[in-house]
Amino acid sequence: MIPWAKENREIPRTHTSRLTVQQFLADYVHKNVPVIIEGSLEELDCRKWSLNFLKDKIGACPVQCRGKTDLESYRKGIKYCIHETTVGEYIADLQNGHKRSTSRYLAAQNIKRAFPQIGDASFVPKFISDNKIHAGPFLWIARNGHYEYTHVDPDEGCLMILEGEKSVRLISNVHWDVLEPNALGSLGRTVQSSVDLENPTPSQKEALKMVNCHFGKIRPGDVLYIPALWWHQVSALSNGVSINIFWGEVGESKFMKKILEEPTLTAFKYWMLNVVEQNKAHVSWPRILSRLEEVLKNFFLKQWHETASTEQIELIKKFIMTHLNISELPPLENNPPKHPPTMKIRGLLHRDRGQGKTSLQCNTSFSC
């Protein structure tokens, strides 16, 4: 909950036995309504994953965990550093209450790449199994009390709790500016909020009085649906294990149709312009701009497995050109290569090298 919010609404719960794929899409996804779904993990291999199970199976695997996660700068999505450790050492620190565990977070580990020992397990709940997986699954191992900064992801989200409990707060992208997104050009795939929901400034607290906060507690076996480009903040109520997957509705361009409609369009524009700003300083930018339609088509095909329509590309091209204050695209270079350059989501290894607004750098571009 947010005590000073206009309204606090508990996230509805349902059980997988009462939910068909069609109902899930119609009642929640198409309406941008978050929901906690019980019982949908019982048939999945990952359901048995606990701290002890992972320590036994992948304890020797090297990982990079986030550091300085107890500082205000992390809670506002500004920066963190990276520590190298192993899964076993990280879990032992949590279980033994080692001091260094109070400022570390093992976050967003790509399971199939980082942990081949368990990468063949089943992860996808039935109610999204017929849709398109954009990215994941990712493994998260949290310490009791960890506060994950408020942010948005450019995909439908599915957060699965395997061990421990978490509290969640979701805020619609209707209230985009209230959450004060970090400056355009910040690195990474997410857009972070500079508001600490538990300790806002007086002006931030006043602005939060206009929002509706959707809140809930998620427990082992629960799956939380997070609508695309909704603000969300997750706190760990105990040491625990969770997995998340990013996805979109199956279809040639159904997901794009959704995010190009208000109120999600405002959030998507900011996210897209953030990617544009990430690329402007690179040598490939003039070539990207000269072939922008092709670049955008390839970008969305890679990100979301979506074939964007001509109308969708034209809409996105127009607001990018407006942002850049240009009325026409530059001409093609002489004898251009067959394939256009790639517009990339830019993220570096560390977030702690004193680079001002572009210091949002990380070992992965996903967050939840």
UniProtKB/TrEMBL annotation:
Gene3D superfamilies: Cupin. InterPro entries: Cupin_8 (IPR041667), JmjC_dom (IPR003347). GO terms for cellular component: nucleus. Residues 113-264 form the JmjC domain. GO terms for molecular function: histone H3K36 demethylase activity. PROSITE patterns: JMJC (PS51184). SUPFAM superfamilies: Clavaminate synthase-like. This is JmjC domain-containing protein. It comes from Oikopleura dioica (Tunicate).
